[in-house]
Design a protein that fits this description.
mainly beta; globular; four-stranded antiparallel β-sheet
Length: about 150
Amino acid sequence: MDDEMVVSWITPAGNDPAPKMSVLYSTVPLSEATELMMQAGDITQYDFHDVNKTTGVMTNYTSGYIHHATLTGLETATKYYYAIQDSSCKERFFTTLPAVGTSEPGITFGVVGDVGQTSYSSLTYAGLLADESIKLVLNAGDMAYADCDQNRW
């Protein structure tokens, strides 16, 4: 839908049952809001089992709890502030796109791929986030490598 935004996050496995968490959001910073909107998240989890064909070592991995909350009824060209309820996550924000057919200028977006997981990866993202003209970052993939370290993936 054109008036929605999905917020995704991961919490550690082992806290059974999986924690029920929600996203709080508003058009003003949450600390200043007199009324907050709230959306509960769905939870999923996956297991990975594989045998390394070279070493014969078995890999067993269970992901953390993967949460997704769909924020609905969002207004166009509006800045929203959000945070995960009952967590130590800091407040973040996003701005919805302008309405289709408006005279507002197009959007500038960044595209990255094959960034890996190094200090240079962090610098790449920091540079994109520092440029306020960039409204969207599309990650074309390949953030992890086939090193059998599921925790890094």
